[in-house]
Write a structure and sequence with these properties.
Blueprint (H helix, E strand, L loop, with lengths): L2 E2 L9 E12 L2 E6 L1 E2 L13 E3 L2 E8 L5 E5 L7 E6 L1 H25 L3 E6 L4 E5 L5 H16 L5 E5 L1 H4 L14 E6 L3 E4 L14 E9 L2 E8 H22 L6 H40 L4 E6 L4 H13 L3 E6 L4 E6 L9 H10 L4 E4 L3 E6 L5 H13 L1
Parallel strand pairs: 1-4, 16-17
Antiparallel strand pairs: 2-3, 2-8, 3-7, 5-6, 5-8, 6-7, 9-10, 10-15, 11-12, 12-13, 14-15, 17-18, 18-20, 19-20
Helix pairs in contact: 1-2, 5-6, 7-8
Length: 394
C-alpha cells in the first residue's frame, strides 16, 4: 500500500520516495512507490501529472490493494526517486473539485436538488442533478456558491469513524466501509471525498455556470472555477466587445442589434427564394420548349451553379409543364434529380434512378413522381443522366 502524502498536504508538490514494484502497463513502464504526492484518478477527478526524477508521469492509478501506480514515458532506472507534481494542473483540479462541492451544496440547501454524478474535464466540469432547475434557480445557486467562496471559509479534511460519521449531515452516504475521509466547510457542507481540496474556499476564486442540458430525468450543469472561469469570461467578454464594434452597438444594445440582423437576413432569404423560383420558372419553360423542338419530353441538364434544393425546384417546375426532368448537379457530391408530372401517367422515377445509378456505384431512389441519388465519381454524372433519360425513352 502506498502512503498518500496529498491527504495530509494537498499543497505538497515535491517529495522523495522509494520504488517498491515495477510492471509493464499499456506498453510502458509503471512503478509503485512507498509514498507519493501524486493523486490517482478517482471520484470524478483526473490524475496528477509531473515527473519522477527526469521521467514524465503520464498517468496515475490506484489498484484495489491501495497501491498507487505511476505510468511513465520511459524507464526510470533508479530505486530512489524525487517526485515533482505538476502544480498548475493540481491547483486547477482543486479549484474545480471544491467548486463542485460548494455548488452541489448550494443546490441542495436552496432547492433540495441532489447531485447524482460529477465529471471534471480538461475545459470544464459538470454535475448531474436529479431535477431541472429554472434559470432563476441556477443564478441563485451560483450566487450562493460565490458567497461562500468569498467568505473564505476554512476547508478541513479528516478521517472519521462510523460513529462520528452518523452525527455529520453528509450530502451523500459513503459506499465504503471503515474510516471515511470527510471534507467539510463549516455550517455549509460535509462530503465523503478522497480528492484534493484547498485550505479555504477563497482559493476557488470564482464559480461561473455556463449552461444546462436536460438528460432524461436529470439535468447536466456545466461550470468553471478559478483560472478557468477567468479565461472563460475573458474569451466571452472579448467576443462581445468585438461584436459590439462590428455592430457599432454598446453591450446593452448588442442583443437587439443581432436580432435585427437575423430578421433582415431571414427577410432577404425569403425574397431571394422568391426571385430564384421566378428565374427557375423562366428557365424551366425555356428548357421544355427546347426539348419539344427536338420532339422530346425529356429535359437533360447538368449544372454546377445549382444547389441540390434548387435542382429539385427546377426539376419540379419542368415536370409541372408536362416534361420529364433529369438534372445532374456537379459539386463535392455529384447528385441526380428526376421528376415527372404528378398529374399524368409516366415512368416510376424511384425505380429508374435506383437501377440506373447502381451501374455507376451510386445509390438512389424515391417516389414514382420524383427521385434523387448520388454518383460517387463525378466523371460518371453525364453518363448517369443519359442512362436515366434513355431508360425513360425505352
Amino acid at each position: 500500500m502506498t502512503e498518500r502524502l496529498y491527504f495530509n498536504d494537498p499543497y505538497l508538490t515535491g517529495f522523495s520516495a522509494r520504488v517498491t514494484a515495477e510492471r509493464d502497463q499499456q506498453g510502458r513502464p509503471a512503478v509503485a512507490l512507498d509514498r507519493s504526492a501524486f493523486y490517482p484518478e478517482g471520484g470524478g477527478q483526473p490524475a496528477d501529472r509531473g515527473m519522477l526524477n527526469e521521467v514524465p508521469v503520464l498517468d496515475v492509478q490506484a489498484d484495489d490493494a491501495g497501491t498507487v501506480w505511476h505510468l511513465l514515458s520511459g524507464p526510470l532506472g533508479d530505486e530512489m526517486v524525487q517526485g515533482q507534481v505538476d502544480w498548475p494542473r493540481r491547483f486547477d483540479h482543486m479549484q474545480q473539485h471544491h467548486g463542485q462541492h460548494l455548488l452541489s451544496a448550494a443546490f441542495e440547501e436552496l432547492f433540495r436538488l441532489h447531485t447524482v454524478s460529477f465529471h471534471l474535464g480538461p475545459e470544464s466540469a459538470t454535475i448531474d442533478l436529479d431535477g431541472d432547475p429554472s434559470e432563476d434557480q441556477m443564478l441563485a445557486a451560483e450566487s450562493r456558491t460565490n458567497e461562500v467562496i468569498w467568505e473564505d471559509r476554512p476547508v478541513t479534511a479528516r478521517l472519521v469513524s462510523r460513529e462520528e460519521l452518523a452525527s455529520l449531515p453528509l450530502r451523500k452516504p459513503p459506499a465504503v466501509e471503515g474510516p471515511i475521509r470527510v471534507v467539510s466547510v463549516p455550517e455549509f457542507d460535509h462530503s465523503a471525498c478522497g480528492g484534493t481540496h484547498p485550505r479555504s474556499t477563497g482559493a476557488v476564486g470564482l464559480l461561473h455556470l455556463r449552461r444546462k442540458e436536460r438528460r432524461g430525468n436529470e439535468t447536466r450543469i456545466e461550470f468553471v472555477c478559478g483560472g478557468r472561469a477567468l479565461r472563460d469570461l475573458r474569451i466571452r467578454g472579448g467576443l462581445l466587445t468585438r461584436l459590439g464594434t462590428m455592430f457599432t452597438a454598446g453591450m446593452d444594445d448588442l442583443e437587439a442589434a443581432v436580432l435585427r440582423l437575423r430578421q433582415n437576413e431571414e427577410s432577404t432569404r425569403r425574397r431571394l427564394g422568391q426571385v430564384t423560383e421566378r428565374l427557375l420558372g423562366f428557365e424551366a419553360r425555356e428548357l421544355v420548349q427546347q426539348a419539344a423542338a427536338g420532339n422530346s419530353r425529356i429535359v437533360r441538364l447538368i449544372r454546377e451553379d445549382l444547389t441540390l434544393d434548387e435542382a429539385r425546384l427546377l426539376a419540379r417546375l419542368v415536370a409541372e409543364l408536362g416534361a420529364i426532368a433529369v438534372v445532374g448537379v456537379k459539386g463535392e457530391k455529384s447528385q441526380l434529380v428526376m421528376a415527372r408530372d404528378p398529374g399524368a401517367a409516366g415512368p416510376d422515377c424511384g425505380r429508374i434512378v435506383r437501377e440506373a445509378l447502381k451501374q455507376f456505384g451510386g445509390r438512389g431512389g424515391g417516389q414514382p413522381m420524383a427521385a434523387q441519388g448520388g454518383v460517387p465519381d463525378a466523371t460518371h454524372l453525364e453518363r448517369a443522366v443519359n442512362t436515366v433519360a434513355d431508360m425513360v425513352e425505352a
